[in-house]
């Protein structure tokens, strides 16, 4: 190997060692055979449903002798487009009550392509501080003049005379309303007041690390109030709400009846839908614009037929109502799991920094268990056959480390009870001095969540 390469490897090794010293080193792992899944995003367990598997295989069988099965042949602007892809886009747009849709190879590609090309010079992007990394990547490539975060799900200021608040001695950033007001001030304020410049507001319907829902109705009302000229464009990432919320899984925007007040929605098919790929719901004009300017669409090979067939199969399953029994079971499991976790806290009353769960009953299948020793707790559960993952900084803010319990329609009550028993064994070991593993991550803060019944209200995760 050339000496220059060796020097570069040395730089990389030092950076990796630094990350290891902070207990933040990422590694690829595989799920041991026989483990109970409390980690993946496949909330409806669609890919393991026999009816879905049979329908998918039937589609592939019917396609033999037609277009190539294993590749699309190029980008959609060259040879990779197909009538099947365009038909699927129309079907999904109609299902989600949108004018048009455009497929991407992933939700990450969709977000990057959208945010990179849509803001025009002088426009501003205002985003929830916990927005997904793909939105950050797209914003960095955009021509927006400013990118401004607002405090997570903090829409209106309680005290309009202040721009910041504190909660449990921790600073809370500016609200969405405060930021929109600030854009209307100063020399450039008239451009936003008149509608000559645009503001794009980026939020997620469900935030995957905490499982909490965005207050979408409040967001829409705030944007329409401050930007009455219609130059406030809300973009909702529905990757973790598609298939779970709304009639037959149409998403949170549809559940709240906001289809005509949200400018664009980004869907991800790798979660509850159980496939791969992404899609943007938008107007027909925006779709045409993205075809011309979204580089993550233009310069990549299009989806092959098996990917399209998988998405078709999943949407047939959802739209026909066959997923409803799975949703009923999943919602029951969410309530039961949360109740078991609260009972566990009440029995052992662990310190808040070691183990705590929000008092508020979760609405999504993601239940975070905040702990200053996420790796130790996750490894303990994994050794007992329950796959949960530690979530550490920088994925979540320092002091907000956790394990993330993801529930699925394929999980049983017995599996949940087994996981809670594993968590309890870890807490018992802590009481007797038997907990080892990772170093304390610096505490988990004092926000309003529960450890042994202490605290009230929704945690700021």
From TrEMBL:
Location of region: Disordered: 442-461
UniProt key word Transferase: yes
Co-factor requirement: pyridoxal 5'-phosphate
Keywords for the protein's UniProt record, in alphabetical order: Pyridoxal phosphate, Transferase
Bias (Gly residues): 452-461
Highest taxon above the source species: Eukaryota
Domain Aminotransferase class I/classII large: 36-423
GO molecular function, one term: pyridoxal phosphate binding
Spans through the membrane: none
InterPro entries reported in the protein's UniProt record: Aminotransferase_I/II_large, AON_synthase_class-II, PyrdxlP-dep_Trfase, PyrdxlP-dep_Trfase_major, PyrdxlP-dep_Trfase_small
Biological process according to GO: biotin biosynthetic process
PANTHER family: 8-AMINO-7-OXONONANOATE SYNTHASE, CLASS II AMINOTRANSFERASE/8-AMINO-7-OXONONANOATE SYNTHASE
Family: Belongs to the class-II pyridoxal-phosphate-dependent aminotransferase family. BioF subfamily.
Protein name: PLP-dependent transferase
């Amino acid at each position: 190997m050339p000496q220059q390469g060796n020097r570069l490897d040395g730089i990389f090794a030092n950076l990796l060692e630094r990350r290891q010293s902070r207990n933040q080193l990422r590694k690829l792992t595989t799920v041991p055979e026989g483990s109970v899944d409390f980690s993946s995003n496949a909330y409806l367990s669609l890919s393991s449903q026999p009816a879905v598997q049979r329908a998918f295989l039937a589609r592939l069988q019917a396609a033999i002798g037609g277009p190539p099965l294993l590749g699309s042949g190029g980008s959609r602007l060259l040879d990779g487009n197909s009538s099947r892809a365009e038909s699927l886009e129309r079907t999904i747009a109609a299902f989600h009550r949108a004018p048009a849709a455009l497929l991407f190879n992933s939700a990450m590609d969709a977000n990057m392509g959208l945010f990179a090309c849509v803001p025009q010079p002088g426009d501003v992007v205002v985003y929830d501080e916990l927005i997904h990394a793909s939105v950050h990547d797209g914003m960095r490539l955009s021509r927006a003049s400013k990118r401004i975060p607002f405090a997570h799900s903090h829409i209106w200021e309680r005290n309009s005379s202040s721009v910041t608040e504190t909660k449990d001695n921790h600073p809370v950033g500016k609200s969405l309303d405060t930021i929109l007001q600030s854009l209307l001030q100063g020399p450039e304020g008239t451009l936003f007041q008149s509608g000559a410049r645009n503001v794009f507001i980026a939020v997620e319907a469900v935030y995957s690390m905490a499982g909490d829902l965005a207050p979408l109705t409040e967001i829409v009302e705030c944007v329409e109030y401050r930007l009455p000229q219609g130059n406030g464009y809300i973009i909702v990432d529905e990757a973790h709400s598609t298939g779970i919320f709304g009639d037959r899984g149409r998403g949170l925007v549809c559940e709240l009846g906001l289809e005509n007040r949200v400018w664009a929605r980004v869907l991800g098919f790798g979660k509850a839908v159980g496939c791969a790929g992404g899609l943007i719901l938008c107007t027909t004009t925006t779709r045409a614009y993205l075809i011309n300017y979204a580089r993550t669409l233009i310069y990549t090979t299009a989806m092959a037929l098996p990917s399209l067939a998988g998405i078709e199969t999943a949407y047939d399953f959802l739209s026909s109502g066959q997923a409803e029994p799975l949703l009923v079971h999943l919602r029951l499991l969410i309530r039961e799991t949360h109740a078991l976790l609260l009972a566990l806290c009440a029995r052992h009353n662990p310190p808040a920094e070691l183990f705590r769960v929000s008092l508020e009953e979760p609405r999504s299948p993601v239940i975070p268990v905040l702990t200053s020793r996420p790796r130790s707790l996750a490894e303990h559960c994994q050794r007992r056959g329950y796959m949960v993952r530690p979530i550490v900084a920088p994925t979540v803010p320092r002091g907000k480390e956790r394990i993330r319990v993801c529930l699925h329609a394929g999980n049983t009550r017995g599996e949940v009870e087994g996981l809670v028993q594993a968590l309890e064994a870890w807490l018992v070991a802590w009481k007797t001095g038997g907990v080892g593993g990772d170093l304390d991550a610096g505490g988990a803060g004092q926000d309003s969540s529960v450890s042994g019944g202490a605290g009230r209200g929704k945690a700021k995760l």
